[in-house]
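Retro notes (design track)

What went well: tokenization of the new backbones is finally stable.
What didn't: we kept losing track of which sequence belonged to which structure.
Fix going forward: every design gets posted as structure first, then sequence, in one message. First example under the new rule, 324 residues:
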């Protein structure tokens, strides 16, 4: 059993990342009002969150700018309209997906940008390109993380090889990403041991990004904390693709660090997140997401099930089970 001190003790190395705009943007095509984004920024300042992820640096020649809100593309000038010079302790992050961004041109030198952190998202088979992106971002002066997606489908040998390659790059943080929300705390513990082994070898940090298909996003996140993972993702009211993520208000309430304050998070959820849900924006745990989590499948079919307003859960389960 994990030592209680590892879960309940003060950890100065912990960093909390707010992914509400980015992962939550996958729910509403990134159409957030400026009021929402400004309030989110100021809430993160009040709660003591360390990084605020604004969205993606998506390629405009791949995605129609008329079909998405501006946080799909995160123009520097749009970020500046929210944060100004950002003379605060809160750092600004964006995600760059391998194969879905023009990173060489759309990500400028850090000295010219309000962005502090580039989060490179990759699958195992695209690690070589991810390394190129990491090196480009580091050379431009950014902090860099690498989010290895869909690791619940990965063989440990392949994961070790990828972490060894990444360890030799200038990346700052390796991220455990439970893309399908299919992992249990015992599995997170074993995976975290592998990540931490390579992090220690190469002088890196480890992060955790959880999804809530099995209602374990928070449990898996605090499991990771006890296993030595320092960078923790959360979203307000757990807003995120499909079943959503680890709820920020749960995470802030758990962390025993005087810099974090859960009360402004509660205020933000009351003012904005409940309103989004009342207006019809849908995310969060439901049976269809449970099923894809149990079967270790991408939630795209469950998302379509939700959009179509289907309620024939048993029939849906038979459909996706046949694909295993």
């Amino acid at each position: 059993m994990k030592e209680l001190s590892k879960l309940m003790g003060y950890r100065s190395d912990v960093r909390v990342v707010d992914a509400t705009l980015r992962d939550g943007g996958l729910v509403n095509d990134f159409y957030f009002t400026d009021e929402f984004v400004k309030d989110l920024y100021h809430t993160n300042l009040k709660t003591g969150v360390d990084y605020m992820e604004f969205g993606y640096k998506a390629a405009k020649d791949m995605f129609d700018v008329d079909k998405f809100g501006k946080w799909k593309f995160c123009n520097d000038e749009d970020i500046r309209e929210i944060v100004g010079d950002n003379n605060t302790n809160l750092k600004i992050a964006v995600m760059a997906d391998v194969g879905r961004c023009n990173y060489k041109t759309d990500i400028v030198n850090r000295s010219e940008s309000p962005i502090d952190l580039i989060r490179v998202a990759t699958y195992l088979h695209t690690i070589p390109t991810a390394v190129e992106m990491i090196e480009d971002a580091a050379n431009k002066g950014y902090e860099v993380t690498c989010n290895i997606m869909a690791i619940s489908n990965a063989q440990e040998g392949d994961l070790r090889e990828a972490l060894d390659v990444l360890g030799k790059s200038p990346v700052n943080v390796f991220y455990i990403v439970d893309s399908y929300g299919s992992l249990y705390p015992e599995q997170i513990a074993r995976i975290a041991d592998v990540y931490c082994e390579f992090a220690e070898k190469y002088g890196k940090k480890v992060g955790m990004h959880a999804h809530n298909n099995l209602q374990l996003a928070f449990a898996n996140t605090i499991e990771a904390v006890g296993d030595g993972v320092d960078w923790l993702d959360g979203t307000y009211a757990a807003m995120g693709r499909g079943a959503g993520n680890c709820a920020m208000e749960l995470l802030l309430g758990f962390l025993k660090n005087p810099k974090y304050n859960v009360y402004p998070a509660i205020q933000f959820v009351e003012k904005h997140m409940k309103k989004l849900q009342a207006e019809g924006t849908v995310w969060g745990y439901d049976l269809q997401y449970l099923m894809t989590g149990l079967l270790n499948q991408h939630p795209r079919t469950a998302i379509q099930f939700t959009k179509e307003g289907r309620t024939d859960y048993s029939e849906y389960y038979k459909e996706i089970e046949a694909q295993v």
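Added context from the reviewer: The beta strands are 15-18, 51-56, 91-97, 117-122, 143-148, 173-177, 205-209, 231-234.
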